[in-house]
Hints:
The complex is a heterodimer of chains A (about 210) and B (about 210).
Chain A: E1 18-20, E2 27-29, H1 49-69, E3 73-77, E4 80-84, H2 86-95, H3 99-126, H4 135-148, H5 154-165, E5 172-176, H6 178-196, H7 199-210
Antiparallel strand pairs in A: 1-2, 3-4, 3-5
Helix pairs in contact in A: 1-3, 1-6, 2-3, 3-4, 3-6, 4-7
Chain B: E1 7-9, E2 16-18, E3 27-29, E4 36-39, H1 44-64, E5 68-72, E6 75-79, H2 81-85, H3 94-123, H4 132-141, H5 148-162, E7 167-170, H6 172-190, H7 193-205
Antiparallel strand pairs in B: 1-2, 3-4, 5-6, 5-7
Amino acid sequence: MDGPGHSNEALTALDAGLVGCRHCTHVSPLNTEICSRCGGKLVSRDPTSLQRVWAWWIAGMLFYIPANVYPMLITATMGRAEEATILGGVIDLANFGAYGVAFIVFFASIVIPVGKFIAIAYLALIVRKPHGEKPSHLLHLFEVVEWIGRWSMIDVFVVAILVALVQFDLLATINPGIAAVCFALSVVFTMLSAMSFDSRAIWDRIETLSK
Amino acid sequence: MQPSDDLVCCPVCDALHRVEALPDGQRARCSRCGTVISVARPEAILRIVVLASTALILMAIVVFYPFLELRNGVFTSRASVFETVMSFSEGVMAPLSIAVAAFVIVLPVTRLALLLWALSPLALNVSPLPWATNALRYAEVLKPWAMAEIFMVGVAVALVKLADLATLSMGPAFWSFAAIVVITALKDTQMSKHAVWMALDTAMKR
Protein backbone atom coordinates (compact mmCIF):
# COMPACT_ATOMS: atom_id res chain seq x y z
CA MET A 1 0.00 0.00 0.00
CA ASP A 2 1.15 3.48 -0.81
CA GLY A 3 0.86 6.35 1.62
CA PRO A 4 -2.21 8.54 1.87
CA GLY A 5 -1.04 10.79 -1.00
CA HIS A 6 -3.48 11.00 -3.88
CA SER A 7 -2.11 10.15 -7.30
CA ASN A 8 -4.12 9.92 -10.49
CA GLU A 9 -1.85 7.38 -12.11
CA ALA A 10 -2.92 4.36 -10.08
CA LEU A 11 -3.34 1.15 -12.06
CA THR A 12 -6.98 0.16 -12.24
CA ALA A 13 -8.19 -3.41 -12.34
CA LEU A 14 -9.53 -2.72 -15.85
CA ASP A 15 -6.10 -1.54 -17.12
CA ALA A 16 -4.52 -4.69 -15.70
CA GLY A 17 -7.01 -6.91 -17.55
CA LEU A 18 -8.84 -7.80 -14.35
CA VAL A 19 -12.25 -7.20 -12.89
CA GLY A 20 -12.71 -6.39 -9.23
CA CYS A 21 -15.67 -7.45 -7.12
CA ARG A 22 -17.46 -4.52 -5.50
CA HIS A 23 -18.91 -6.78 -2.80
CA CYS A 24 -15.74 -8.40 -1.49
CA THR A 25 -12.80 -6.61 -3.26
CA HIS A 26 -11.58 -9.90 -4.79
CA VAL A 27 -10.08 -9.64 -8.30
CA SER A 28 -10.77 -12.06 -11.17
CA PRO A 29 -9.68 -12.18 -14.84
CA LEU A 30 -11.65 -9.80 -17.10
CA ASN A 31 -14.84 -11.33 -18.58
CA THR A 32 -15.44 -13.43 -15.47
CA GLU A 33 -19.15 -13.04 -14.72
CA ILE A 34 -19.50 -14.38 -11.19
CA CYS A 35 -17.04 -13.64 -8.40
CA SER A 36 -15.32 -16.86 -7.31
CA ARG A 37 -15.13 -15.76 -3.69
CA CYS A 38 -18.55 -14.36 -2.86
CA GLY A 39 -20.74 -15.32 -5.83
CA GLY A 40 -21.61 -11.71 -6.66
CA LYS A 41 -22.12 -10.43 -10.21
CA LEU A 42 -19.01 -8.88 -11.76
CA VAL A 43 -19.17 -5.89 -14.10
CA SER A 44 -16.00 -4.01 -14.90
CA ARG A 45 -17.77 -0.83 -16.05
CA ASP A 46 -21.54 -0.80 -16.13
CA PRO A 47 -22.61 0.67 -19.51
CA THR A 48 -26.26 0.92 -18.45
CA SER A 49 -25.44 2.71 -15.21
CA LEU A 50 -26.43 6.23 -16.32
CA GLN A 51 -29.65 5.03 -17.95
CA ARG A 52 -30.73 3.42 -14.71
CA VAL A 53 -29.70 6.49 -12.72
CA TRP A 54 -31.97 8.69 -14.86
CA ALA A 55 -34.85 6.19 -14.89
CA TRP A 56 -34.96 6.02 -11.08
CA TRP A 57 -34.36 9.77 -10.85
CA ILE A 58 -37.42 10.50 -13.01
CA ALA A 59 -39.54 7.97 -11.10
CA GLY A 60 -38.46 9.60 -7.81
CA MET A 61 -39.30 13.07 -9.14
CA LEU A 62 -42.74 11.92 -10.35
CA PHE A 63 -43.65 10.77 -6.84
CA TYR A 64 -42.02 13.72 -5.09
CA ILE A 65 -44.53 16.19 -6.57
CA PRO A 66 -47.74 14.57 -5.19
CA ALA A 67 -45.87 13.90 -1.94
CA ASN A 68 -45.68 17.66 -1.40
CA VAL A 69 -49.11 18.59 -2.72
CA TYR A 70 -51.34 16.03 -0.98
CA PRO A 71 -51.78 15.69 2.81
CA MET A 72 -49.35 13.58 4.80
CA LEU A 73 -51.47 13.45 7.97
CA ILE A 74 -55.22 13.74 8.47
CA THR A 75 -56.01 14.68 12.08
CA ALA A 76 -59.60 14.43 13.26
CA THR A 77 -60.30 16.14 16.60
CA MET A 78 -63.89 16.39 17.90
CA GLY A 79 -65.30 15.74 14.46
CA ARG A 80 -63.12 18.36 12.79
CA ALA A 81 -60.68 17.07 10.20
CA GLU A 82 -57.40 18.83 9.57
CA GLU A 83 -55.01 17.96 6.81
CA ALA A 84 -51.30 18.65 6.95
CA THR A 85 -48.81 18.46 4.11
CA ILE A 86 -45.07 17.93 4.60
CA LEU A 87 -44.37 21.65 4.72
CA GLY A 88 -47.49 22.22 6.87
CA GLY A 89 -46.16 19.74 9.42
CA VAL A 90 -42.87 21.63 9.64
CA ILE A 91 -44.70 24.96 10.11
CA ASP A 92 -46.86 23.41 12.85
CA LEU A 93 -43.77 22.24 14.70
CA ALA A 94 -42.17 25.67 14.40
CA ASN A 95 -45.34 27.43 15.65
CA PHE A 96 -45.36 25.03 18.55
CA GLY A 97 -41.91 26.30 19.47
CA ALA A 98 -40.03 23.10 18.73
CA TYR A 99 -37.52 24.76 16.41
CA GLY A 100 -34.89 22.03 16.71
CA VAL A 101 -37.29 19.28 15.70
CA ALA A 102 -38.87 21.49 13.02
CA PHE A 103 -35.40 21.95 11.58
CA ILE A 104 -34.69 18.18 11.58
CA VAL A 105 -37.95 17.44 9.77
CA PHE A 106 -37.43 20.35 7.36
CA PHE A 107 -33.92 19.10 6.61
CA ALA A 108 -34.92 15.44 6.21
CA SER A 109 -38.08 15.94 4.16
CA ILE A 110 -37.28 19.00 2.06
CA VAL A 111 -33.57 19.89 1.98
CA ILE A 112 -32.25 16.30 1.59
CA PRO A 113 -34.66 15.19 -1.20
CA VAL A 114 -34.29 18.40 -3.22
CA GLY A 115 -30.51 18.46 -2.69
CA LYS A 116 -30.36 14.82 -3.76
CA PHE A 117 -32.23 15.41 -7.00
CA ILE A 118 -29.85 18.26 -7.87
CA ALA A 119 -26.68 16.39 -6.81
CA ILE A 120 -27.49 13.18 -8.70
CA ALA A 121 -28.43 15.11 -11.86
CA TYR A 122 -25.21 17.14 -11.60
CA LEU A 123 -23.05 14.01 -11.19
CA ALA A 124 -24.83 12.16 -14.00
CA LEU A 125 -24.37 15.11 -16.37
CA ILE A 126 -20.77 15.88 -15.48
CA VAL A 127 -19.37 12.35 -15.92
CA ARG A 128 -20.57 12.30 -19.53
CA LYS A 129 -17.94 14.71 -20.77
CA PRO A 130 -14.44 15.76 -19.73
CA HIS A 131 -14.51 18.40 -17.04
CA GLY A 132 -12.15 20.21 -14.73
CA GLU A 133 -13.70 19.03 -11.48
CA LYS A 134 -11.46 17.27 -8.97
CA PRO A 135 -12.52 13.60 -8.72
CA SER A 136 -12.12 13.61 -4.96
CA HIS A 137 -14.67 16.45 -4.67
CA LEU A 138 -17.16 14.61 -6.87
CA LEU A 139 -16.57 11.43 -4.91
CA HIS A 140 -17.29 13.19 -1.63
CA LEU A 141 -20.49 14.61 -3.08
CA PHE A 142 -21.48 11.12 -4.24
CA GLU A 143 -20.73 9.54 -0.87
CA VAL A 144 -22.72 12.18 1.00
CA VAL A 145 -25.68 11.70 -1.37
CA GLU A 146 -25.56 7.93 -1.02
CA TRP A 147 -25.30 8.04 2.75
CA ILE A 148 -27.83 10.75 3.54
CA GLY A 149 -30.69 9.61 1.25
CA ARG A 150 -32.15 7.06 3.64
CA TRP A 151 -32.63 9.68 6.38
CA SER A 152 -35.50 11.19 4.41
CA MET A 153 -37.58 8.27 5.65
CA ILE A 154 -37.95 10.02 9.06
CA ASP A 155 -41.22 11.67 8.09
CA VAL A 156 -42.78 8.40 6.93
CA PHE A 157 -41.90 6.77 10.25
CA VAL A 158 -43.27 9.75 12.18
CA VAL A 159 -46.59 9.31 10.37
CA ALA A 160 -46.60 5.58 11.16
CA ILE A 161 -45.98 6.17 14.88
CA LEU A 162 -48.60 8.94 15.15
CA VAL A 163 -51.21 6.86 13.35
CA ALA A 164 -50.57 3.85 15.60
CA LEU A 165 -50.66 5.86 18.84
CA VAL A 166 -53.37 8.44 18.33
CA GLN A 167 -56.55 6.39 18.01
CA PHE A 168 -58.87 7.88 20.67
CA ASP A 169 -62.02 7.39 18.61
CA LEU A 170 -64.08 10.61 18.97
CA LEU A 171 -61.51 12.64 20.84
CA ALA A 172 -58.71 12.49 18.35
CA THR A 173 -57.61 10.18 15.56
CA ILE A 174 -54.78 10.53 13.10
CA ASN A 175 -54.86 8.85 9.71
CA PRO A 176 -52.20 8.70 7.03
CA GLY A 177 -52.63 10.70 3.82
CA ILE A 178 -51.74 9.58 0.31
CA ALA A 179 -48.58 11.74 0.40
CA ALA A 180 -47.01 9.30 2.88
CA VAL A 181 -47.00 6.57 0.22
CA CYS A 182 -45.75 8.92 -2.51
CA PHE A 183 -42.99 10.25 -0.30
CA ALA A 184 -41.82 6.77 0.74
CA LEU A 185 -41.70 5.68 -2.91
CA SER A 186 -39.83 8.83 -3.89
CA VAL A 187 -37.17 8.16 -1.23
CA VAL A 188 -36.78 4.53 -2.32
CA PHE A 189 -36.48 5.50 -6.00
CA THR A 190 -33.84 8.17 -5.34
CA MET A 191 -31.88 5.70 -3.19
CA LEU A 192 -31.96 3.25 -6.11
CA SER A 193 -30.91 6.07 -8.44
CA ALA A 194 -27.85 6.87 -6.29
CA MET A 195 -26.98 3.17 -6.02
CA SER A 196 -27.12 2.71 -9.81
CA PHE A 197 -24.37 5.28 -10.18
CA ASP A 198 -21.02 3.65 -10.94
CA SER A 199 -18.52 5.60 -8.83
CA ARG A 200 -15.66 4.18 -10.92
CA ALA A 201 -16.92 6.33 -13.82
CA ILE A 202 -16.02 9.47 -11.86
CA TRP A 203 -12.37 8.38 -11.92
CA ASP A 204 -12.33 7.04 -15.48
CA ARG A 205 -13.25 10.43 -16.93
CA ILE A 206 -10.36 12.10 -15.15
CA GLU A 207 -7.94 9.52 -16.53
CA THR A 208 -9.07 10.03 -20.13
CA LEU A 209 -8.84 13.78 -19.70
CA SER A 210 -5.28 13.74 -18.38
CA LYS A 211 -3.97 11.39 -21.08
CA MET B 1 -1.68 -9.57 -14.95
CA GLN B 2 -2.74 -12.67 -13.05
CA PRO B 3 -5.28 -12.44 -10.23
CA SER B 4 -3.88 -13.52 -6.90
CA ASP B 5 -4.97 -13.58 -3.28
CA ASP B 6 -3.11 -10.48 -2.15
CA LEU B 7 -4.45 -8.34 -5.02
CA VAL B 8 -7.35 -6.19 -3.98
CA CYS B 9 -9.40 -3.68 -5.93
CA CYS B 10 -10.86 -0.52 -4.44
CA PRO B 11 -14.66 -0.95 -4.58
CA VAL B 12 -15.09 2.79 -5.16
CA CYS B 13 -12.56 3.67 -7.87
CA ASP B 14 -11.24 0.31 -9.15
CA ALA B 15 -7.57 1.01 -8.33
CA LEU B 16 -5.52 -2.17 -7.78
CA HIS B 17 -3.55 -2.68 -4.60
CA ARG B 18 -1.36 -5.33 -3.12
CA VAL B 19 -2.31 -5.71 0.52
CA GLU B 20 0.14 -7.25 2.94
CA ALA B 21 -0.53 -8.19 6.53
CA LEU B 22 -1.06 -4.98 8.48
CA PRO B 23 0.18 -4.28 11.99
CA ASP B 24 -2.66 -4.30 14.57
CA GLY B 25 -4.85 -1.24 14.59
CA GLN B 26 -3.50 0.05 11.26
CA ARG B 27 -5.74 0.86 8.36
CA ALA B 28 -4.93 0.71 4.66
CA ARG B 29 -6.46 3.36 2.42
CA CYS B 30 -6.83 3.40 -1.35
CA SER B 31 -3.93 5.43 -2.77
CA ARG B 32 -6.21 7.12 -5.29
CA CYS B 33 -9.53 7.92 -3.62
CA GLY B 34 -8.73 7.42 0.07
CA THR B 35 -11.43 4.80 0.77
CA VAL B 36 -10.50 2.58 3.71
CA ILE B 37 -9.74 -0.85 2.22
CA SER B 38 -8.63 -2.86 5.19
CA VAL B 39 -8.42 -2.43 8.94
CA ALA B 40 -6.36 -4.79 11.06
CA ARG B 41 -8.43 -5.70 14.12
CA PRO B 42 -7.70 -9.23 15.27
CA GLU B 43 -10.72 -9.30 17.59
CA ALA B 44 -13.13 -7.87 15.02
CA ILE B 45 -14.90 -11.10 14.05
CA LEU B 46 -15.57 -12.08 17.65
CA ARG B 47 -16.85 -8.57 18.45
CA ILE B 48 -19.14 -8.54 15.41
CA VAL B 49 -20.61 -11.91 16.40
CA VAL B 50 -21.14 -10.90 20.04
CA LEU B 51 -22.73 -7.55 19.15
CA ALA B 52 -24.94 -9.05 16.45
CA SER B 53 -26.28 -11.78 18.75
CA THR B 54 -27.00 -9.21 21.49
CA ALA B 55 -28.93 -7.08 19.01
CA LEU B 56 -30.87 -10.11 17.78
CA ILE B 57 -31.97 -11.05 21.33
CA LEU B 58 -33.04 -7.47 22.06
CA MET B 59 -35.05 -7.51 18.83
CA ALA B 60 -37.29 -10.21 20.30
CA ILE B 61 -38.15 -7.86 23.21
CA VAL B 62 -38.86 -5.06 20.73
CA VAL B 63 -41.43 -7.03 18.80
CA PHE B 64 -43.33 -8.50 21.74
CA TYR B 65 -43.32 -5.79 24.45
CA PRO B 66 -45.12 -2.42 24.46
CA PHE B 67 -43.18 0.35 22.80
CA LEU B 68 -44.93 3.61 23.66
CA GLU B 69 -47.95 4.38 25.83
CA LEU B 70 -50.11 7.45 25.45
CA ARG B 71 -52.42 8.66 28.24
CA ASN B 72 -54.95 11.46 27.93
CA GLY B 73 -57.24 11.52 30.98
CA VAL B 74 -59.39 8.42 30.68
CA PHE B 75 -58.02 7.33 27.33
CA THR B 76 -54.99 5.12 27.09
CA SER B 77 -53.46 3.82 23.94
CA ARG B 78 -50.52 1.54 23.73
CA ALA B 79 -48.56 0.66 20.63
CA SER B 80 -45.98 -2.01 20.04
CA VAL B 81 -43.56 -1.74 17.15
CA PHE B 82 -45.70 -4.32 15.38
CA GLU B 83 -48.79 -2.09 15.66
CA THR B 84 -46.81 0.91 14.44
CA VAL B 85 -45.77 -1.03 11.41
CA MET B 86 -49.34 -2.15 10.78
CA SER B 87 -50.76 1.38 10.99
CA PHE B 88 -50.95 1.71 7.22
CA SER B 89 -52.57 -1.67 6.72
CA GLU B 90 -55.90 -0.36 5.34
CA GLY B 91 -56.63 0.02 1.63
CA VAL B 92 -54.14 1.80 -0.61
CA MET B 93 -51.71 2.20 2.28
CA ALA B 94 -51.15 -1.55 2.69
CA PRO B 95 -47.94 -1.69 0.62
CA LEU B 96 -46.52 1.06 2.80
CA SER B 97 -47.20 -1.07 5.86
CA ILE B 98 -45.18 -3.89 4.32
CA ALA B 99 -42.37 -1.50 3.42
CA VAL B 100 -42.20 0.00 6.91
CA ALA B 101 -42.22 -3.51 8.43
CA ALA B 102 -39.35 -4.44 6.13
CA PHE B 103 -37.27 -1.33 6.86
CA VAL B 104 -37.75 -1.37 10.63
CA ILE B 105 -37.97 -5.04 11.65
CA VAL B 106 -37.53 -7.60 8.85
CA LEU B 107 -34.38 -6.26 7.15
CA PRO B 108 -32.46 -5.41 10.36
CA VAL B 109 -33.25 -8.91 11.71
CA THR B 110 -32.36 -10.60 8.41
CA ARG B 111 -29.11 -8.69 8.27
CA LEU B 112 -28.13 -9.73 11.80
CA ALA B 113 -29.08 -13.36 11.10
CA LEU B 114 -27.06 -13.44 7.85
CA LEU B 115 -24.00 -12.01 9.60
CA LEU B 116 -24.26 -14.56 12.39
CA TRP B 117 -24.70 -17.39 9.86
CA ALA B 118 -21.53 -16.34 8.03
CA LEU B 119 -19.31 -15.29 10.91
CA SER B 120 -20.24 -17.18 14.09
CA PRO B 121 -18.49 -20.42 12.98
CA LEU B 122 -15.35 -18.33 12.54
CA ALA B 123 -15.60 -16.96 16.06
CA LEU B 124 -16.13 -20.50 17.40
CA ASN B 125 -13.29 -21.89 15.29
CA VAL B 126 -15.41 -24.45 13.45
CA SER B 127 -15.75 -24.83 9.70
CA PRO B 128 -18.13 -22.34 8.00
CA LEU B 129 -21.77 -23.21 7.30
CA PRO B 130 -22.93 -23.77 3.71
CA TRP B 131 -23.81 -20.56 1.79
CA ALA B 132 -21.67 -18.50 4.20
CA THR B 133 -20.28 -16.39 1.34
CA ASN B 134 -23.75 -15.62 -0.02
CA ALA B 135 -24.96 -14.73 3.47
CA LEU B 136 -22.10 -12.28 3.99
CA ARG B 137 -22.65 -10.70 0.57
CA TYR B 138 -26.38 -10.18 1.13
CA ALA B 139 -25.74 -8.77 4.62
CA GLU B 140 -23.69 -6.05 2.93
CA VAL B 141 -26.24 -5.46 0.14
CA LEU B 142 -29.05 -5.01 2.70
CA LYS B 143 -27.14 -2.45 4.74
CA PRO B 144 -28.67 0.77 3.30
CA TRP B 145 -32.20 -0.68 3.59
CA ALA B 146 -32.10 -1.52 7.30
CA MET B 147 -33.40 1.71 8.83
CA ALA B 148 -33.81 1.03 12.55
CA GLU B 149 -31.81 4.11 13.54
CA ILE B 150 -33.90 6.35 11.31
CA PHE B 151 -37.04 4.98 12.93
CA MET B 152 -35.60 6.04 16.31
CA VAL B 153 -35.25 9.64 15.13
CA GLY B 154 -38.83 9.39 13.85
CA VAL B 155 -39.91 8.36 17.35
CA ALA B 156 -38.21 11.43 18.81
CA VAL B 157 -40.04 13.71 16.38
CA ALA B 158 -43.37 12.00 17.09
CA LEU B 159 -42.84 12.48 20.85
CA VAL B 160 -42.45 16.23 20.39
CA LYS B 161 -45.57 16.40 18.23
CA LEU B 162 -47.61 14.55 20.86
CA ALA B 163 -46.21 16.32 23.92
CA ASP B 164 -49.16 18.72 24.29
CA LEU B 165 -51.82 16.15 23.45
CA ALA B 166 -51.17 13.55 26.10
CA THR B 167 -48.67 12.06 28.54
CA LEU B 168 -46.28 9.60 27.00
CA SER B 169 -44.33 6.82 28.59
CA MET B 170 -41.80 4.49 27.06
CA GLY B 171 -42.11 0.72 27.44
CA PRO B 172 -39.31 -1.86 27.65
CA ALA B 173 -39.35 -2.26 23.88
CA PHE B 174 -38.42 1.41 23.44
CA TRP B 175 -35.23 1.04 25.47
CA SER B 176 -34.30 -2.25 23.79
CA PHE B 177 -34.73 -0.62 20.42
CA ALA B 178 -32.54 2.30 21.46
CA ALA B 179 -29.90 -0.23 22.59
CA ILE B 180 -30.11 -2.08 19.26
CA VAL B 181 -29.42 1.11 17.34
CA VAL B 182 -26.29 1.78 19.40
CA ILE B 183 -25.09 -1.85 19.23
CA THR B 184 -25.60 -2.02 15.46
CA ALA B 185 -23.62 1.18 14.98
CA LEU B 186 -20.79 -0.24 17.15
CA LYS B 187 -20.87 -3.48 15.15
CA ASP B 188 -20.63 -1.64 11.83
CA THR B 189 -17.52 0.23 12.96
CA GLN B 190 -15.85 -3.17 13.44
CA MET B 191 -16.67 -4.30 9.91
CA SER B 192 -13.95 -4.01 7.32
CA LYS B 193 -14.98 -5.65 4.06
CA HIS B 194 -11.55 -6.89 3.13
CA ALA B 195 -10.60 -8.16 6.60
CA VAL B 196 -13.89 -10.01 7.09
CA TRP B 197 -13.70 -11.63 3.65
CA MET B 198 -10.07 -12.66 4.20
CA ALA B 199 -11.04 -14.28 7.50
CA LEU B 200 -13.88 -16.19 5.83
CA ASP B 201 -11.56 -17.19 2.98
CA THR B 202 -8.99 -18.64 5.36
CA ALA B 203 -11.67 -20.52 7.26
CA MET B 204 -13.09 -21.99 4.04
CA LYS B 205 -9.70 -23.31 2.98
CA ARG B 206 -9.09 -25.13 6.23
